[in-house]
Specification:
The chain contains seven helices and six strands. The protein is elongated and about 55 Å long. By secondary structure, it is of the alpha+beta class. The strands form two sheets. Strands 1-2-3 form a three-stranded antiparallel beta sheet, with helices on one face. A three-stranded antiparallel beta sheet has the order 4-5-6.
């Protein structure tokens, strides 16, 4: 691990097993802490690169999904329309790292208040789930935190969305 000061910021460079990782921080303490953690993760083989998660937006992930799924779809025009609608919405401009169960629930509530039927809103959420799955497979993007906290259960007529194990919200 190597720390250096560049442009009033601290850069931490970690080189382990032929892998080289760098990150910039405002404080030296944060850089040292990240460097020690990253060094141990690289040595054990558990380190995951989250750069794509920070830089990629949901609309980029939806575009990737459209390219992968358009030729397999039975209704490609409808799929393209739904993806473009999601890309233009407020949730489409969010970075993947900022995507959470609360923001998805707010999106769901906004769509319901706009007069969309529950089946349409569920299809939007299923489309988002499929896009996230493709992102995990193709790009190695880890979004397990969000997928664990927001899942669709078929308990009632329309389903139940679970935020935590203790809190259930009927749809």
């Amino acid at each position: 691990m190597y720390l250096r000061k560049r442009n009033n910021k601290w850069q931490c460079l970690v080189k382990v097993k032929g892998s080289r990782v760098a990150q910039t921080f405002m404080s030296k303490w944060d850089a040292r802490k990240w460097g020690e953690k990253t060094t141990s993760e690289l040595r054990t083989g558990t380190w995951q690169n989250n750069n794509k998660l920070v830089s990629m937006r949901l609309k980029d992930l939806l575009q990737l999904y459209l390219e992968k799924a358009l030729h397999k779809s039975k209704r490609p025009k409808i799929l393209k329309y739904e993806i473009e609608l999601l890309r233009r919405s407020t949730i489409g401009s969010l970075p993947l790292a900022a995507l959470s169960a609360v923001k998805l629930a707010n999106f769901r509530d906004d769509r319901l208040k706009a007069g969309k039927s529950t089946s349409i809103v569920r299809s939007y959420l299923k489309l988002l789930s499929r896009a996230i799955t493709i992102g995990q497979r193709e790009l190695g993007i880890l979004m397990q935190r969000m997928r664990d906290s927001f899942e669709l259960k078929s308990g009632s007529k329309y389903g139940t969305y679970i935020y935590n194990e203790s809190e259930k919200i009927p749809f």
